[in-house]
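From the pipeline queue, job 12 of 40. The input is one protein chain; the requested action is below.

Action: predict structure.
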Amino acid sequence: MLDIGKSSNLPTPKCYFSTTTLSAYNNISELPTKKTPFNLLHGSPYYHTVILLSPSASLNVNTTSKYARLRMPLLSLLTGDFFNTHIKTGNVLLLSSPLKLDTTSSEASFTLINGVLSITCDRALYERAGLTGTAIPDPHARKHGTSKFRIELNLRLPSMLAGKKGFERILRAAETVFVGDISWLFYDVAAAGVAEDDATLGKEVEIKEVKAETGDLDKVLVPGFPADISKDAEVENDLVELLEWISLAAINSPRVQQGDLVDEIISRYEVPTISSKRTADTTDDSSNSKTTQNLTKISFTGFLPASYLATTFGEALLQSSGSWFAFLVQGFEDGKAFVILKTEDDRALSWDIEG
């Protein structure tokens, strides 16, 4: 018998919605960091992809950034000029690819944020490393099973120096347990990028530049944006459908184009119709608030720090008077994303997605 309706113990993906009226800003330096929706831009120290969707010719955003791809063992990060320049006294972001050990099926991953080195590994590596950490419950593991551990080490502490007992224990783990070359993404927060002549990055370094990639989508059916936001079930359904429309438009789906003809067996999707009583762009009682517009998609991909997102969003905000744009962000973690829709009447509709 098929157990189709069986409930799952896995965590349910969550989406948190918020809305606010935006103040008038004259320059990017005036933008807050803790107020909605700006707090979403600073919710993580780095992100992977940004997509800016707007009516054609309404925005001209072309922010650039540089980051580096390094290849070095963990021990090299904890010793020599790199450690002294970028970790003890500097401010850098580091994100590693998984370190897979040839002798076992174990793997570990590493991040460095504000001088704190975080190590995520399985039980076997954790016990061999001999470092203090905490268990991470894994909803995908078997019942009563704990498959991951996290170790956090503040490398800026005065005690984190060669010869100190605690630091020597870390070096010993890097020499005997977490062994092998690791690929790292590197961004220097203090320098707002990467210096190409930085000899401390080692010989296996590749400087990458984040550049805007632009594409057009013509004759797109754009739904009206809700003006009356409440906990009414119908309004909540409108917000879900609006988020779905933004996601489809961001991938240049032909399903949102005017005149799209597709067999119902393939797709039954229709651009949502939001009642004019709940939209800001119509005043009559017509039930169809959709308009046809040509859209431009600007995308940025790479190792993007929070400051880069804030600058990109700020430029779009200052240029979008009387117009709308959607700002879609995807993090490195699976299922972590958020969307901000800035409307023509200077409101921000935000979806924070987890899982």
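Job complete. The mean pLDDT is 88.
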